[in-house]
Amino acid sequence: MERRRAILDAAEALLAEQGYEAATLKAVGERAGIPIASMYHYFSDRHQVDAELLQHHLREIEPLISAALEDSELPSLRAAADAVIDPLRNYFRGHPSCVELWFSGRSETVTDLVREFDAAQAERFWHLLVERGLVSAGTPRLVLQLAFEVGNRLFDIAFRQSPAGDDTTIDEARRMVTAYLETYSA
Q1: Dihedrals φ, ψ of 54, to 5°?
Q2: Average model confidence (pLDDT) for the chain?
Q3: pLDDT digits (tens, 9 = 90+) for 92-147
Q4: How many other C-beta atoms can be found within 10 angstroms of the C-beta atom of residue 183?
Q5: Which domains does the chain have, with CATH numbers?
Q6: Which residues have CB under 8 Å from 34's CB, separation 6+?
Q7: Which residues make Cβ contacts (< 8 Å) with residue 42, sequence separation at least 6?
Q8: 1 confidence band (pLDDT: 50, 70, 90)
C-alpha cells in the first residue's frame, strides 16, 4: 500500500508540475524511488495510474457539487449553473493534476470515467431542476447531458488558456449553459 501511494503521489506531483506528457511511468517510478521493473507489480501501465488518480479526484469533487446544490435555494437557473460550475472551477484551480487528467483524452479509461461522472451529474441535475421547478418535467435528459458536454469543453479551453482557468471563458460558459437551460425553463 505504501508503494502504491508513493506512485500515485509521484504521478500527481509530476502531472501538476510538468503536465501530462512528463508523467510517464518511468518518470513516476524515478520520482517515487521505485525501479521501473517494480512499477509493473503495482500498476499494469500508465493509464491504470491515471485512472486511479482520476477516481480519487472524482470522489472528492462529487460531495463538493452535492453540497453546493443541496445547500443553496437555487432561485434561478443561473444560480443552479453556478452551483455546479463554481465547485468544479475551484477544485480544478487547486488540483492541476486533475485538470491534466480530465482534459487529456489520452486514455479511453480516463475519458470514460469523465463521461460517466458527467452523465451521473447531469441525471442528478435534471432531477433537481425539475423538482425545484426550474425546468419543465418534459425537459429531455439529453438537454442536461449536452449542458455538461458544453461546460466540459469550455472548461478545457479555459484551463488551456490559463493554469487557473481563464475567468472570461468560464463566465462565457456560465452564460452559454444558462441561456441554453433557460430555453427549457418551467
Answers
A1: -65, -40
A2: 94
A3: 999 999 999 999 878 899 999 999 999 999 999 999 999 999 999 999 999 999 99
A4: 10
A5: 1-44 (1.10.10.60), 50-182 (1.10.357.10)
A6: 3, 6, 7, 42
A7: 3, 4, 7, 34
A8: confident
